[in-house]
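Q&A log
Question type: sequence-to-structure
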Amino acid sequence: MPCCDEPQDIIDDVRLDRLTRVSCDMRTIIRRNGLEADLSVEARQWIADHDDWDRRRIAEEAALGEREIAKRKALDKLTLDDRRVLGL
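Response status: OK
Response body:
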């Protein structure tokens, strides 16, 4: 029997977001180690679907300027020394 989450009538959005972030992190680790072919068909399909969703989300964020705003906020937190080290 395949592994599944503990039974619940409804998974709240926060829990679902957390599970998705964990799955996405694991996808990254799996790819870095060349293990994607060892996954189940279901897991590989989730990864493909998630990659597609990520591409659309990133494109939408870029179109709205959200990625630039987030980047600027992160850069604003750096000290002058941090910026020099990073070549910014």
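Response note: The mean pLDDT is 87.
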